[in-house]
Design a protein that fits this description.
A hairpin with a 4-residue loop joins strand 3 and strand 4. This protein has helices at residues 24-34, 76-96, 110-123, 143-162, 171-180, 193-198, 200-204; strands spanning 5-9, 38-44, 46-47, 52-53, 62-64, 102-107, 127-131, 165-168, 186-188. It has 7 helices and 9 strands, in the order βαββββαβαβαβαβαα. 31% of the residues are buried. With 206 residues, it is of the alpha/beta class. A 7-stranded parallel sheet has the order 5-2-1-6-7-8-9, sandwiched between helices. Helix 2 runs parallel beside helix 3 (110-123) and helix 3 runs parallel beside helix 4. The longest helix has 21 residues, at 76-96.
Length: 206
């Protein structure tokens, strides 16, 4: 039996080093490895939590180049950082062609999820979008803000429509996804290891 190759895309979680506990994507990774799948972690060379460059790198991870560091969570530099990382992800995917059998991408960021889901659509590769936060809606603070982030709202809708499955961490998140993409398939998988393990059927059916 040929093992399936699964890409796990996430740039927001701290990596499992220096005493960091496994976060959600690492739980996915641990579970999938135990099930016999081949996984590839795709992350960035800039750590979001401490806002520092990652110098010591795991050899089996793919580190997308950030180029531009940022020091505030809401800033133009962060937008530029995310854009450049997304370009790097797009280049990586197109170099790989159909090498991956499944892609699981954390949402946010909006652009990384958009690249993942549309790439999957083009190459007929199933993509699971794992929704952790309500971007860009959480940034609505006035008419000018809504006007500025309107393109991201359109990108969000395209992302959810193109994915094979949208994963929500709670019923409220599921409702939010459905409000953007009523016809998309959505499943609730909370942020616990046991809930991840219970959903093996999704991977078996890919």
């Amino acid at each position: 039996m040929i093992k399936k190759n699964i890409a796990l895309v996430n740039i927001g979680e701290p990596l499992p080093r220096g005493g960091n506990k496994p976060h959600r994507m690492m739980i996915w990774n641990e579970f999938l490895l135990k099930q016999g799948y081949n996984t590839r972690i795709i992350t960035t060379d800039f750590e979001h939590q401490r806002k520092i460059w990652i110098k010591e790198k795991e050899s089996d991870f793919i580190y997308l180049k950030s180029y531009v560091p940022y020091f505030k969570n809401i800033s133009v530099r962060r937008l530029i950082n995310h854009f450049l990382i997304s370009v790097g992800l797009m280049c990586h995917f197109f170099r790989k062609g159909k090498e991956y059998d499944l892609i699981i991408c954390s949402y946010p960021t909006v652009l990384l999820s958009f690249i993942s889901s549309t790439y999957g659509k083009v190459y007929s590769i199933p993509v699971f979008i794992d929704v952790r936060d309500l971007w860009p809606d959480i940034f609505f603070k006035g008419k000018m803000t809504k006007l500025f982030i309107f393109p991201l709202i359109l990108i969000k809708k395209i992302t959810f429509n193109c994915s094979r499955l949208n994963i929500a961490i709670s019923p409220g998140y599921e409702d939010w996804v459905k409000s953007s993409s009523p016809s998309s398939k959505t499943e609730i998988i909370p942020l616990t290891k046991n809930h991840v393990i219970e959903k093996q059927k999704f991977f078996d059916g890919v």
